[in-house]
Amino acid sequence: MTEEQMLAGSIKHNAAAQEALYNRFSPRMLGVCYRFGRNREDAEDMLQEGFIKVFTQLHQFRNEGALEGWIRRIIVHTCINHLKKNKKFNESVDLIHANSMHIREDYIPSIMQAKQVVECIRLLPLGYRTVLNLYALEGFSHREIANMLEIEESTSRSQYT
After folding, report:
1. Sign of torsion over alpha carbons 70, 66, 128, 156
2. Whether residue 71 is found in the same domain as residue 110
3. Band of the pLDDT at 87, cuts 50, 70, 90?
4. 65 and 112: one domain?
5. Which of 87, 70, 80 is nearest to 33 (CA)?
6. Which of 24, 57, 86 delimits the end of a domain?
7. pLDDT for the residue numbered 125
8. Dihedral through CA 112, CA 118, CA 123, CA 124, nearest 10?
9. What CATH number has the domain bearing residue 64?
10. pTM for the full model?
11. Structural domains in the chain (count)
């Protein structure tokens, strides 16, 4: 089934088209959710919530960009809203604990696999992890991140550096 057929069918609430659309995009979107969540269960919850929004808003897609990019934006916003409901982003971080996480330089391999990088990102405190995901991986500006997370732009910048 082509992307256009999946889109048209999903808008008409055709279950086969919706399943095809979900199957095509959910693996990549689960990866996005996994970067934001605390564990796989959180990621799966965010993915399901995000796809419910995708299917209810699909009629608003205007073919002005890639469907995957449109879906990704909804998924990212769903992840942010999920995190905002469960944790405040402007809580102070225990810097003593963060600074005590020392890793020997000779332990870090010169080339890390993507899975290892994701695991390292997941070890960061929530605020740092979220800002890193939004800025470096999703391409949002610090101003956009500040608006999404309801924090100061300077907080976004400091959590990224």
Report:
1. negative
2. no
3. low
4. no
5. 80
6. 86
7. 86
8. 100
9. 1.10.1740.10
10. 0.71
11. 2
